Amino acid sequence: MSADARGDFSQIPILDVSGLYAGDDAAVLKVAETLRGYLENIGFLYVAGHGVSRADVEAVRSMSKAFFALPDEEKLKLKIDKNFRGFLPFAGSTIVTSSVAKVSKPNQSESIFFMHEVAADDPDVLAGKPLQGPNQWPDETALPGFRATIERYVEEMSALARKMVHAISISIGMPADSMDRYFDKPTTFLRLLHYPTQPAEEGLFGSAPHTDYGYITLLAQDDVGGLEVKNKAGEWIAAPPIPDTFVMNVGDILARWSNDRFVSTPHRVINRSGRERYSQPFFFDPSMDEMIEALPTCVPAGAEPKYAPVLYRDYLMERIDKNYHYRKGAAAAAATS
Ligand SMILES: O=C(O)CCC(=O)C(=O)O
Ligand SMILES: [Fe+2]
């Protein structure tokens, strides 16, 4: 594809990643080469041939449906906490940091976040580091098996994400394991989302146009549809559900890390299907303590990197504090203390 064709897509490609599981270097290289083109030109793809079973994806969706069907007072017992773990009520975020649209109306969704599990007595918690702490789980008697289902899925998605880290490293021209250390203690988010059907209203979205903050996102969606991805011409291209695939996209920190060789592409959700929509994005990001600095293979000889190095923690916290209503008070208090 020529440089001019960058961003010029009319559908999202499907990549079979089974080569990453084959234990054969040539197969891995082949996947990485195709992946490179997609990440450079589109920033989105469907991942097929991964190791996660349909049953495990659907088990999470069933738990998600059961959770959102609980009465509000039950859900609010898990109200999102200072560590960004728990239930975010309907219309609880407005993506004001969006670089792709002036967003003023809150997202028409409710959601619950599970991050990497950190014990209450972990040194990072005791040191007061941000976003470190235990997850909040629904009562086992209300939703039997919930925690085990989620934890199993997070483990499987993390394993897939680590395969993708290898493929990405190769595609960028580095050894397969050269980015591994950044993910020794990854920052992960599994977000279960519920989008009621929404009215047609200017500027109102299930998820307003945005780019993701992190490294990569791997999303499973139900059969309702409504996810759209913006191409260079400004057209919104549908990313309809395809059975047994995940929609994968580049986040801002990978785009920045790659000196904008890879693109963090805007996307949005509009659910006017008349049905309830459920989705489950998994965000796989570096350890909070890592400094993210342009990868040398992505900076042309003699050129300066486009971005200054940034601590992943600082980068992430700025976005979270701005976009989530419940944090406004907390962030303001922290800034003045
Ligand atoms: O629900 C979806 O399909 C997409 C959600 C999304 O873009 C996000 O949570 O960042
Ligand atoms: Fe997103």
From TrEMBL:
It is an enzyme of class 1 (oxidoreductase). Residues 186-286 form the Fe2OG dioxygenase domain. One of its GO terms (molecular function) is dioxygenase activity. PROSITE patterns: FE2OG_OXY. Its EC number is 1.13.12.19, 1.14.20.7. Pathway: Alkene biosynthesis; ethylene biosynthesis via 2-oxoglutarate. Its cofactor is Fe(2+). GO terms for biological process: ethylene biosynthetic process. It comes from the Bacteria. Keywords: Dioxygenase, Ethylene biosynthesis, Iron, Metal-binding, Oxidoreductase. It holds the Pfam family DIOX_N. InterPro entries: DIOX_N, IPNS-like_FE2OG_OXY, IPNS-like_sf, Iron_ascorbate_oxido_reductase, Oxoglu/Fe-dep_dioxygenase_dom. This is 2-oxoglutarate-dependent ethylene/succinate-forming enzyme. Signal peptide: none annotated. It catalyses: 2-oxoglutarate + O2 + 2 H(+) = ethene + 3 CO2 + H2O; L-arginine + 2-oxoglutarate + O2 = guanidine + L-glutamate 5-semialdehyde + succinate + CO2. Belongs to the iron/ascorbate-dependent oxidoreductase family.
